[in-house]
Specification:
InterPro entries: FtsX_ECD. The chain is α+β, with helices and mostly antiparallel strands and 136 residues long. The protein has a domain of 86 residues: Alpha-Beta Plaits, CATH 3.30.70. It is built from four helices and five strands; from the N terminus they run αβαβαβαββ. Strands 2-3-1-4-5 form a five-stranded antiparallel sheet. The relative contact order is 0.24. The model has no long low-confidence stretch (mean pLDDT 88).
Amino acid sequence: MVLGVGAAGGALYLAGWRQPVVREFRVWAALKTDVTEPQKAAVRAELGRIPATDGVKYTSSAEAYARTKELMESQNMTAYLEGLDADSMPQSFELITTGTEFRCAQLAAVRALPGLSDVRVTMVPTGKRPGGPVAC
């Protein structure tokens, strides 16, 4: 009996069946420069409907600029900072969700909201698997 179970498992493995890998997906939503507080609250609330590992995080324009500046300076790419300031960086919301795939239908209601300029989804890289953009 044990031999039969092992043979069946080996046959499934050789046939290409693998346990689905749970991955992390980063959802980033940039806000328009003229976004109102009620619009911002609506975007946060709608993003909050997506199961997130650590909740929905807000990043102000100043925080986005500081993060970009730090990254560019650490990679000796300060020339790219010319002409940039905090006002040129968008406010945004970000969340991390997990799953074997990302269901883009979750974003339909978010994309329909006013005050939003862009929504992007990326698969987070792991030690063994690359990441990349998810076309939604």
